[in-house]
C-alpha cells in the first residue's frame, strides 16, 4: 500500500435533472478524504438497449466504450443510484449489461461502494442489494459497511439548491468514504 491519490469514478444511476442521487454524487468531493480524486462517469443516457445481435452487427457503441474506458482507468467506483420498482434502474442495469460483455471486462477486480437516496422510508436500499448481485456477477470487489442509504430525501436536501444539509447523513458519508479508502488500499493490487 502507498498513499498516492486514488482515482475514484462516481456513477449516478439517475438521469433526472433534479435528481437527489445526482445531488448526493455532487456532494461527495467535499466529504471525501484527501486521498480521493473523484470524477463523474460519462453518461449512459444514449446507450441502446443491449441486444447481442446489435453487438454482433455493429460492435460496442462509442458511448459504451467511453463508459467502459472510464471504469477501467479508475482505481475504484462509487455507484450512487435510486431504486426503481424495488430494483436497479433499467438504464444503469443496461449499462452494466453492455460492459459485462466486453473482452477486457471493465468491472473485473474493481472495488465498488454503493450509495442510494429516495424520498421514501427505505432509501433505495433494495436497489443496493440487487446491485450487489449484478456486481458480484461481473467480479467487482464490493465494499460492505457502513452502508449509505438516505431515506426521506425531501427533508435532507435543500429544496432549492439540492445541497445535502442533513448532518447525520453527512457524517455517515464521511465515515463510509474514509473506510472505503482503507478498503481500496487493502484489496487492490494496483495501489
Ligand atoms: C419508475 C420508478 C420506480 C420507482 N420505484 C421506487 C421504488 O421501488 N422504491 C423507492 O424507494 N422509490 C421508487 N421510486 C421513487 C424514486 O425513489 C424517486 O423518484 C427518486 O427521486 C428517484 O431518484 P432521483 O431523485 O435520483 O432521480 C420510483 C420512481 C420511478 C420513476
Q: What can you tell me about this protein's structure?
A:
This protein has 191 residues and is α/β, with parallel strands linked by helices. It has one domain (6-187): Rossmann fold (3-Layer(aba) Sandwich), CATH 3.40.50. Helix content is 40%, strand content 15%. It is built from six helices and six strands. It has helices spanning 20-31, 52-58, 62-73, 90-100, 125-137, 167-187; strands at residues 6-12, 36-40, 76-80, 111-117, 141-142, 148-150. Flavin mononucleotide binds next to helix 1. Flavin mononucleotide (FMN) is lined by residues 14, 16, 19-22, 82-86, 118-120, 122, 124.
Task: Chart the SSEs and their pairings.
Elements lengths: L5 E7 L7 H12 L4 E5 L11 H7 L3 H12 L2 E5 L9 H11 L10 E7 L7 H13 L3 E2 L5 E3 L16 H21 L4
Parallel strand pairs: 1-2, 1-3, 3-4, 4-5, 4-6
Bound molecules: flavin mononucleotide (FMN).
Flavin mononucleotide binds next to α1.
Question: Given this structure, which CATH class is correct?
Answer: Alpha Beta
* Low-pLDDT sequence parts: none
Oligomer: single chain
Given helix and strand content, the structural type is alpha/beta
Corresponding CATH superfamily: Flavodoxin domain
Question: How many beta-strand segments?
Answer: 6
Q: Kindly state the percentage of residues in helix.
A: 25-40%
- Second CATH tier, the architecture: 3-Layer(aba) Sandwich
Strand content: 15-25%
How far apart are the termini? 6 Å
| Whole-number mean pLDDT | 97
The CATH topology turns out to be Rossmann fold
Number of helical runs? 6
Biggest sheet layout: 6 strands, parallel
H and E order:
EHEHHEHEHEEH
Cα shape: globular
Instruction: List each distinct ligand once.
Output: flavin mononucleotide
Radius of gyration: 16 Å
Number of domains: 1
